[in-house]
Amino acid sequence: METTSSRIAAALDYAAVAVEGNTTTVAVPWERAHEAGEALRREGYDYLIDMVGVDGGDTLGVTCYLSQSENPAHVLKLKYSTTERERPRLTSLHDLWGTANVYEREIYDFFGIVFIGHPDMRRIFLRNDWKGYPLRKDYVERNDVPLDNERIDDMERVCTVTLEMGQEREAVSKLFGEEEYVVNFGPQHPAMHGVLHLRASLDGEQIRSIDPVFGYIHRGMEKMCESYTYPQILHLADRLDYLSGTMNRHAVCLLAEKALGLEAPEKAHYVRTILDELTRIASHLLGWGCMAMDMGAITAFVYGMRDREKVMDIFEETAGGRLMAGYGVIGGLAQDIHPNFQKRVSEFIPYMRKMLREHHLLFTGNPIARGRMEGVGRLTLQQAVSLGVTGPSGRASGWHNDMRKIEPYAAYGKVDFEEVMRSDGLTFDRYVIRLDEIEQSLRIIEQLVDNIPSGAWAVKTKPVVKLPEGEFFQRVENARGQFCVHVESRGDKSPYRVKFRSPSLTLVGGLKAIAPGTKVADLIMLGASLDYVIPCIDR
Amino acid sequence: MEVKNIRIKNIPHEEFKDNEYLEKYVAQLREGGVNVVVGALSDLINWGRSNSVWPLTFATSCCGIEFMCVGAARADFARFGWEVTRNSPRQADVLMVFGTIVHKMAPVLKRLYEQMAEPKYVMAVGSCAIGGGPFKSSYHVVKGVEEIIPVDVYVPGCPPRPDAILYGMLQLERKIKVQNFFRLPAGPHPDESSKTEGDGDNE
User: Fold this and answer.
1) Of A49, A142, A321, B93, which sits most exposed with the smallest number of CB within 10 A?
2) Region A312-330: what's the mean pLDDT?
3) How far apart are CA B53 and CA B83, in angstroms?
4) Where are the domains of chain B?
5) Bridge partner residues of A60 (DSSP)
6) Chain A residues with CB-CB distance to B106 below 8 A
7) For residue A217, which residues of chain B lie inside 8 Å, CB to CB?
8) B92 in contact with A at a CB cutoff of 8 Å?
């Protein structure tokens, strides 16, 4: 790591470089951010994990978390900011990393920072007639519930700001041309897996381009976190991606424990890992069932939900909640496991193995299903890395990005399991990889369930949890990919800034990249195979 | 006011009868008295209506997953005639709001409600739909769908269990059953029945 950071320091003589553990921080003036980005891109930083907008009081800035697809354990922070608050301008990095496109739109939406050179400076979550920028510290609430629908013209109005000879030039254009035939999917559409609104421009039956419209379930969680205490934030994390609620909660717990220097008891690590894997199984079963249902196979959905109920039973008995288990807390678990827990989990493993064979028999070999999934929707490895498509969908394209392997947290370091990989990146690969991951999850659970250590399930924390000053970052693998939490603390009982990296947001970015050229009917399959959860995107 | 022979493991049968709101509703309806023929015909229509309620699925977030569980094999709302979920508001009888409604979604929800044919009902499922729930302090969340559309049945929980959702559904069935089909109230509450006094027989 030392060599990398010294190489960076030599290449970027205008930057302030600091190294702390596995993380290198590079601060540059915003005018030279693009230049620094180019240099880092040449150094092999091809994966932009997340971009966090920060209102520092008198500055508005951005923190980019970068990593290398070859060496994903290493994280580099690129920081740049501006002191201008009236008309803040920063340089766009969208041409270096594909994901920057949506992240910069998000920062524009929340902080009002305009990125020079960005091709599509529209609001991403809020409506165009929204007043103010909600995540700024001086934001004053002054928006009523709108009663009229957003105008299509507003949705399509694309603003770009470019710099020509030192002079800013604003240009306004329309997203779709007059002659284009645009079809709306959603926001209330049964096959959209939530309230995603896709506007697809069609050429006959073929898709020319799609424009995803987000924000129909934007709950403003990140702003709420700034006034909540850390234990309260756990509950919000559950409700981000509700199908991997336990894992999201796990991320926040791990972050707080790391910051406080707490070490959760071994028992908590074991149980959390088992619950994470059970959640992953439940999520993949639901994803499998819904994907089959989108193809018209209702039976598969009923089968998937039947097996999922078994997992829900285990949760209910031990944690008390079904979908929102609410079991992990900062320092361990909320309470001890139920005496039946181990027995129930051990019974579930052979049952699920048997059912998994049945699922394959029922659906994977089905010629109609194969016909709809094979040869469709290729996402190349390069696209996956640039667009940050992580999780099963990224691994289906051949990208090793499993956080359980890269940075083994909780009890993942103690178990033997395989990171399921495929290489073609087709719809069928993304389908099959989920069923194979269920098998691996069962393997993990099998190795842990009989060895849960006895003893305490939580360490005592202070009644008011205050994180020390600084920036903290935690990545976990949820059912859809890398879920990351960034917390900036100023020593208070509430964080100064929280940012959740939603793996689903980048999955929709992947959909946008692979949809052009496919048929309308395949669009549904592509969406189902990427398996995004919209409330996680919108936060 | 009779209650079907319902078997839901976690809820005792008597619990389904425990609904003060409906008792008041019936008392109010009986005050005016009903013609025997009209009453019998209304009962017949309501028998059919209450046993084939078609919901419009409007799941925005977590509660929608529990709704899927209600539709799947274990809870199985098909037992009560609810299985025909509609994706078009024109064909639906009841709008089931699952999950948080935010500012951007509010006009969409209102439009869907307006597109539904009368008589229509609304169920608000989950604490977000009831009053904003855990997101009450947010800048972008509607504090309860009642700000936008009238609500018949509230099902609390975050998210509610499938049994709770079934319970809410069955209470709505009971409500449909006691109504006078030829003099339906304009809103979800019986007090509003006086508003349609004049044009009762327009069906």
Assistant:
1) A142
2) 87
3) 8
4) 15-191
5) A55, A82
6) 145-147
7) 60-61, 99-100, 102, 105
8) no
Q: Return the minimum-mean-pLDDT range out of A285-289, A317-321, A493-497, B18-22.
A: B18-22
User: Which regions of chain B does DSSP assign to beta strands (E)?
Assistant: 55-59, 94-98, 121-125, 153-155
Q: Closest chain B residue to A287 measured between Cα atoms?
A: B65
Between β-strands A75-82 and A23-27, what pairing exists: parallel, antiparallel or unpaired?
parallel
A191 in contact with chain B, both atoms CB, cutoff 8 A: no
Residue B127 pLDDT exceeds 80: yes
Q: Which domains does chain A have, with CATH numbers?
A: 2-140 (3.30.460.80), 265-464+505-538 (1.10.645.10)
- Using the Cβ of B66 and the Cβ atoms of chain A, whether some distance falls under 8 Å is answered with yes
CA B118 vs. chain centroid, Å, equals 13
Please write the tens of the pLDDT for every residue from A132-165: 888 888 888 778 888 888 777 777 888 888 877 7
Q: B15-191: what CATH class? A: alpha beta
Say if A286 is an interface residue toward chain B (CB within 8 Å): yes
Question: Which pair of tokens denotes residue A435?
Answer: 């069923």
Q: What percent of chain A has pLDDT above 90?
A: 12
| pLDDT tens column, A440-452 | 999 999 898 888 8
Higher pLDDT, A155 or A518: A518
From B179, B114, B7, B76, select the one nearest A309 (Cα to Cα): B76
Distance to chain A for B79, nearest Cα, Å: 15
Report, as an integer, the average pLDDT of B13-29.
76
Inter-chain CB proximity B141 and A235 less than 8 Å: no
Beta strand residue intervals within A186-276, DSSP E? 197-203, 206-213
Are A147 and B110 inside 8 Å of each other by CB?
Answer: yes
- Complex ipTM more than 0.85, yes or no: no
Phi, psi of B121 (to 5 degrees): -130, 160
As to burial, measured by CB atoms within 10 angstroms (0-12 exposed, 13-18 middle, 19+ buried), residue B152 is buried
- Chain B segment 144-163 residues within 8 A of A by beta carbon are 147-148, 158-159, 161
State residue A354's pLDDT score: 92
User: What's the residue count for chain B?
Assistant: 203
d(CA B171, CA B154): 10
Which residue from A minimizes the CA distance to B145?
A145
Q: Strand A89-91 vs strand A114-116: parallel, antiparallel, or unpaired?
A: parallel
Rounded Cα gap, residues B16 and B3, in angstroms? 7
- C-beta separation of A157 from A149 below 8 A: no
Pairing status of strand B121-125 against strand B94-98:
parallel
Strand partners, B121: B94
Burial string for A346-358 (b: 16+ CB within 10 Å, else e) reads eebeeebeebbee
A72: helix, coil or strand? coil
Residues across chain A: 539
Torsion sign over Cα A100, A101, A106, A109: positive
**Residues of B whose CB is below 8 A from A308:** 69
Q: Which of A215, A217, A301 sits opposite B61 (nearest CB)?
A: A217
